[in-house]
């Protein structure tokens, strides 16, 4: 039954892709009642909370223009005068964006907390999400723009953002906090880019994902089991959320009408949400989520589930030979992870994407000398590391301690 719901969702997205007027219609005819915050932009929300906020653009070697947000220091100018403000980069997960780091109140959200601790907080946005839909030569409406998956986010986006921060701040090292897909792209960057480990000596991995063999998440399982490849051929490699506005409209209006069915569908796609969560802020969430990505990226995740391997995108026999000179896509071998990097893993007992069994395997594959600690948070699910109201007690103090002890800046 739910498989068909997903199919319906995909088809409606496909239809919406062909009819941009649907989102135009929605934008014109639906001005829902929301929290005041919900209508503010990212920068508006941060500014409203009394923090300084900047917007930056970094261009990758393959032409994608990525938007980074920066909270350079804390509230009321705390830490603004010091010349030793240390940079840190926070990177969002699949279908998400930098909004995830400021989704709660300042005392509860990691970005503000680190800024108040004297850090220069940078938040990245991967190619193809709502904040990073520009390219030096490709149009966002072209198929070519959407030809990417998390391979490119690891090979191009993350190193580009780190280099940009190094250039802007004059520091030589940038510690990193990644959530979900933000951890996958980091594993890839460390394995593929020889210089990355000396620039990013500390990596805090929230809901770490490598192999997704034991994933229990319904949506990705369903995608993997649907033999979705044919469906993707019909869709073409395009934008997964052709009109984020349409989805927001669905979230806001439909969820107001029937919050139970909505919660059900959202939980089915994102996994359950077990931690204490501030439901009053749901309109703000609806106003900014989901962040969007490419269909090819979703397909790459589905491949991870069906092929049971953390590997590069599988183009099929002929495609692989053309692209990789091998009939199989190259595997990301985490036993080769650089030993001069310090990694802290944070996982949850109820996480459907970073499943406890897969994280156990990840933990045993990584070189022992790299791992500072593996914290297992009881009853945490995949979004709780960033959205739960008690993450500021269960996780962020450890992050602050690691930043303090394990970075040379
Ligand atoms: C100001 O920043 C320092 C660290 O730079 C921190 O210890 C202190 O708690 C901060 N004060 C406030 C009011 O946030
Ligand atoms: C995209 O980037 C180009 C080159 O930097 C810039 O001229 C253009 O204004 C940007 N377009 C949008 C919609 O941001
Ligand atoms: C929940 O969010 C609302 C709206 O931003 C805020 O007024 C309230 O204090 C928050 N509650 C908690 C427990 O953080
Ligand atoms: C992924 O699973 C394969 C097959 O079980 C295993 O050989 C490999 O070490 C795993 N990789 C990671 C990163 O856990
Ligand atoms: C390491 O993880 C354990 C298990 O979650 C936790 O109890 C402990 O506080 C962590 N150690 C440090 C130094 O953060
Ligand atoms: C961090 O350094 C302090 C002071 O040296 C020490 O007490 C603490 O155990 C260290 N924490 C970790 C996780 O290494």
From TrEMBL:
Domain Partial AB-hydrolase lipase: 45-105
InterPro entries reported for this sequence: AB_hydrolase_fold (IPR029058), AB_hydrolase_lipase (IPR006693), Lipase_euk (IPR025483)
The keyword Endoplasmic reticulum belongs to this UniProt entry's keyword annotation: no
Active site: 180 (nucleophile), 351 (charge relay system), 382 (charge relay system)
Signal peptide coordinates: 1-18
A GO MF term: hydrolase activity, acting on ester bonds
BP term (GO), one: lipid catabolic process
Record key words, sorted: Glycoprotein, Hydrolase, Lipid degradation, Lipid metabolism, Signal
Keyword set includes Signal: yes
Family: Belongs to the AB hydrolase superfamily. Lipase family.
Name of the protein in its database record: Lipase
Organism: Polysphondylium violaceum
UniProt lineage: Eukaryota, Amoebozoa, Evosea, Eumycetozoa, Dictyostelia
